[in-house]
Amino acid sequence: MTESVLSTPRSLGSISGLLQVVSLLSLVLLLLKAAQLYLKRQRLLKAAQQFPSPPSHWFYGHSREFKKEQELQLTLKWVKKFPCACPRWLWGTNVIFLLYDPDYMKVILGRSDPKADEAYKFLAPWIGYGLLLLNGQPWFEHRRMLTPAFHYDILKPYVGTMADSVQMMLDKWEGLISQNPHLEIFEHISLMTLDTIMKCAFSYQGSVQTDRHSKFYIQAIEDLKNLFFSRVRNVFHQNDIIYRLAPEGCRNVHVCQLAHEHTDRVIRLRKAQLQKEGELEKVRQKRHLDFLDILLFSRMENGSSLSDKDLRAEVDTFMFEGHDTTASGISWILYALASHPEHQQRCREEIQSLLGDGASITWDHLDQMPYTTMCIKEALRLYPPIPGIGRELSKPITFPDGRSLPKGAIVVLFLYGLHHNPKVWPNPEVFDPFRFAPYATRHSHAFLPFSAGSRNCIGKQFAMNEMKVAVALTLLRFELAPDPSRVPVPSSQIVLKSQNGIYVSLKKLP
Fold this sequence. Notes:
The structure is a single chain. The chain is an alpha+beta fold and 510 residues long. It has a domain of 271 residues: CATH 1.10.630.10. Helix content is 56%, strand content 10%. The chain has 20 helices and eleven strands. A four-stranded mixed beta sheet has the order 1-2-7-4. Strands 3-11-8 form a three-stranded antiparallel beta sheet. A two-stranded antiparallel ribbon has the order 5-6. Strand 5 and strand 6 form a beta hairpin. The N and C termini lie far apart (105 Å).
């Protein structure tokens, strides 16, 4: 009895001693981490000294300024004030360097720096590691594998499919404007571009624009973009464990599942089609395979080269990129033409002289509308579908003006800022299609709606074709005007959206 009583204080003493040791070690680790963060911040401050920027708080960075004003509008003020580039502090040691000078763009895009994993990794639960998120040799192998899917022999017959999808949307618009001429166009155009990519790249047989499941997918994409945008800017949501426990993290898991159900259904349907007698052999005899068939055959012929996970990642990536960025581009182009009736009419006359009533539009027509193409490019300058692209420097870099950044720095190629930079584009807010006239000259990296270099948009020709088809057929059917009561407010949410929708007034042409 005496022995057990005496042993209790000893055991309590040993526990107390252990707790003291643990506390001391924790304090040492905390101090080491604080010192590490301090030294990192000092290194970044030294690098940032070369690039003037507005004053920032040591912890909050510039976040308070962005709460007071629209993000794109505030950063455009920085573009005008600070030449070539400026740092934007998010919080603590987290800083990104915004670049918006064509010489800076050319240097970065001529290198092979990886995507900035700090932000892009948050997309992985949604789109996986497909062509957008891959780096290094895996990216090169996937790019080489998928490039044949965008050969012009493949793209040619897609023009007819694009036209059918656009005409279906325009038929729907005719019915809607009989009740209200003012129409929010982005959602309709998103369904149309999803319809197109499903039929062209994924051999889908049905009609996305009348399928209620597709509307759920479109909404899921919107939710995922908003959740991504919110997480990137929340210091407390950078940790995966904390984020999963938060309401937004739970919501993200649920919405990812909805998006994956859609892409899994697409893969499942195509696999079932390939099991039909004669279908498999017919596909094998094609000179150029469609996008999904390339993925499926690569996996069939070389089972270890493309896993189910890799297959779904590429489908998720292209399902999103193939419809959402193009929908953004088309929506803003139509809004720009609605806001400039003189250019709209000139485009319409050009298209009427080429197509008549638009009953049939072909691949050859797409290169015969120079003024419409100029207007499309000018709209893409004002409203680039992808406002910015992130890179993490794999080695130090020195820019043409002598300023430099160290290895590991995060840079954002701020395409929206580049396209609105008054030092690059005089009177940048003015819609002037003649900037893209055949005789016009500009810096090779002044206009980058599809990026440039080895990691440029693999589907840029597909997207440009779809934009031309959509604009041409829309202008043949409707006269467009802006809705003065609802002026769109551009917002960067992976793709360029409007915070309050993109409203256009439509009038049926006789």
